[in-house]
Amino acid sequence: MGSLSPLDPLFTPLRLGSLSLAHRIIQAPCTRMRSTPDPSAPGVWVPNDLNVTYYAQRASKGGLMLTEATPISRDAAGYPGVPGIFTPSQIAGWKKVTDAVHAKGGIILCQLWHVGRATTPGMLGGKTPLAPSDIPMSGNALDGTVYADAPPKAMSVEEIKGTVEEYAAAAKRAMEAGFDGVEIHGGNGYLLDQFLHDNVNTRTDSYGGSIENRARIVLEIIHAVTQAIGPDRVGIRLSPYNYFQDTRDSNPQKHWGYLCSQIAALPESARPAYVHMIEPRFDEVLDESEKIDALETTQEVVKPSLDGFRNVLKKGGVSFIAAGNFKAENAGEKISSDGADAVAFGRLFISNPDLPRRLQEGLAVNAYDRATFYGASPPERGYTDYPFAA
Ligand code: PHB
């Protein structure tokens, strides 16, 4: 018997709805931009053999993996090289990924994504991006477009209803592709987070104004997706303290507290298995201390924390995954203190294909190379060439 390690809490089984996890180290969703363009369809990227290798390398027995954020439709996409889940070619490509993960005993969910205003007409075959309101983001897109020069269109109620249906249809296609379920992407300043944040959503109809209205589309999508594929294989990712993509909510604790209480109160037949949240300290651009300082000076947040959300959800029987700047030093404690049921790792899973084993055996971890996160030449570099431990 080995001695007790602070990481031991990560290595106990966990039931998430219908999913039986052997350990609590989850691969976080990470955009990697290494898929293949479909020659017959502009704007369509398809999972390829290199993508299969990448996911298969990171699969572990009873380990849960989340795919990179995956556009649910042609109109939902924001970046090149990102595989969607809306064409037969993509379903076939993903099927190879899910088969390879299952062959190693892994569990994999497809993260369903709509970027909302975080895109450009150039990415959408000339169409105007859709968002809750017509407020553009600041800055430039990857293709050089100044977002303010191509502002989004505020969605009609019909377009909102259509998008809800698209999520359900994408969830069904994910099941066809062999996924074990789906995670609804409700964070990081993309479409659903744009609806939730009160600095982005300025609608005056039943999808804007109060938090009850801003959360409506999210609850409708949870309902549609859980009815499409069953509730016990559905999760949702949220980022209440997000700043990325120009989101700044006036009261995250109150507003996401409302959303969590609604999720917790759903009947079992429509209640997702888990909520996955990003720690307030995490930011896509700022480092940890800058983010905490910014939260403390600009928002009415006494102490930014996920604990209140976790507690409300736990009472409703909804499991909780936490993500954002976890490492060997702080991950076990998150579980032993009951702050979460499982912990997701993004950057460390990028650089360590065998991360669960390294944490279990106390092995050193490979450092990550940020310059290769979003593509590299050749594409293997910083993707499938990180070494396994000896
Ligand atoms: C990104 O591509 O930078 C990205 C995508 C999805 C996220 C966050 C960041 O949720």
Automatic annotation (TrEMBL):
<dbReference type="InterPro" id="IPR045247">
    <property type="entry name" value="Oye-like"/>
</dbReference>
<dbReference type="GO" id="GO:0010181">
    <property type="term" value="F:FMN binding"/>
</dbReference>
<protein>
    <recommendedName>
        <fullName>NADH:flavin oxidoreductase/NADH oxidase N-terminal domain-containing protein</fullName>
    </recommendedName>
</protein>
<feature type="domain" description="NADH:flavin oxidoreductase/NADH oxidase N-terminal">
    <location>
        <begin position="10"/>
        <end position="365"/>
    </location>
</feature>
<dbReference type="InterPro" id="IPR001155">
    <property type="entry name" value="OxRdtase_FMN_N"/>
</dbReference>
<dbReference type="GO" id="GO:0003959">
    <property type="term" value="F:NADPH dehydrogenase activity"/>
</dbReference>
<dbReference type="GO" id="GO:0005829">
    <property type="term" value="C:cytosol"/>
</dbReference>
<dbReference type="InterPro" id="IPR013785">
    <property type="entry name" value="Aldolase_TIM"/>
</dbReference>
<comment type="similarity">
    <text>Belongs to the NADH:flavin oxidoreductase/NADH oxidase family.</text>
</comment>
<dbReference type="Pfam" id="PF00724">
    <property type="entry name" value="Oxidored_FMN"/>
</dbReference>
<keyword id="KW-0560">Oxidoreductase</keyword>
<dbReference type="GO" id="GO:0016628">
    <property type="term" value="F:oxidoreductase activity, acting on the CH-CH group of donors, NAD or NADP as acceptor"/>
</dbReference>
